[in-house]
């Protein structure tokens, strides 16, 4: 933990060591905003319905000078639901009662027509609506389950990034200097579920958790975005480590015969492309395809190690602009090409989403309605509504409703019976 704070402090120091002409402006940035507020969440069923009683603070600082700029955005959260008697574990209390994180914190420098950025960043590849096909760089924090918007659940990672326009194209190269994994919900927390389960200690022993710091944890990638005739196109390549653990079989324990596992985050290579075309009549058709080589999968029935198979993720989406609403429908498929019995992942996984986003009353009300399911719909379905209303410029009110259906082993069905209502109120200044 101390190394993490040291690295964050180092980046902050680099920001403050910009050109002399800019340093005096750092105490008075060209742009800033902040929000302080309260948030609560309620289960719609069962006892102990109040699941969140939080206060939060968010702030953004930005400034620029002739040769560069800096951007900083962070948030602090304190949840009083974990004080006193509560139904959650000590681990959940320790992880979630008080948290602070950077949404981004980086320094940018202009290099000719291009830009070099250094620090904690979020990089979004692809145009999928809340689905990750090409968008694989930043890990996710599942502390609020699987329904949180990606802009809130992405974890910023330390990287060096360079972008350069070439004609109508923008080329990008990046180097992520440290490995960060997806953060599963804390054991015993509100959104802990079987889909995040660790190996049962009655049957398995996890002997080790190899570290992937420094040169072992880095990743690197490149992208190109532009137009081919009337088609918007993007091409990406990434070499990185899997962000969810893979458990490799190492043998058996001598005392009780349990299976010994090693927790790994294997390295893989991804290549992908995204295309979007304006079909006229306010309709845009888009598609994304990503191929993952050297993809590893847990298979506890193997005599040794873990299984390896190429994997393909693909997506087809249609967007339709109707008055004040953007209506999007998407189909995503994930397929393990060399699937074997015992793999803890289905050979094929499908996900359909239908969403509508709209703005009303001079942009004071923003609405998002979502239906997401995997066939058959009775096994895995989410109904979601998110509403943000600003009655005045200094006040923001939020409402979110999540309703789940399905089997406990599926993405949304894991929360069947835990339908929830979220409320928030923030003061903007």
Protein architecture, described:
A hairpin with a 2-residue loop joins strand 2 and strand 3. Helix content is 7%, strand content 53%. With 429 residues, the protein is mainly β. The strands form 3 sheets. The chain has an 18-stranded antiparallel beta barrel. Strands 8-12-11 form a 3-stranded mixed beta sheet, with no helix packed on it. A two-stranded antiparallel sheet has the order 15-16. It contains 4 helices and 23 strands.
* H-E order: HHEEEHEEHEEEEEEEEEEEEEEEEEE
Low-confidence stretches: 1-26
Q: Biggest β-sheet, characterized?
A: 18 strands, antiparallel, barrel
Summed over residues and divided by their number, the pLDDT gives a mean of 92
In which range does the helix fraction lie? under 10%
Span of the ends, CA to CA: 32 Å
Beta strand %: over 45%
Main traits of this protein?
single chain, 429 residues, mainly beta, 18-stranded antiparallel β-barrel, 3-stranded mixed β-sheet, 4 helices, 7% helix, globular, disordered N terminus
The gist of it:
This protein is mainly β and 429 residues long. It has helices spanning 2-16, 20-23, 90-96, 150-153, and strands at residues 31-43, 50-65, 68-79, 98-111, 114-121, 157-166, 169-176, 204-208, 219-228, 231-241, 246-252, 259-264, 267-280, 283-293, 296-297, 307-308, 311-322, 325-336, 348-360, 365-373, 380-392, 395-406, 420-428.
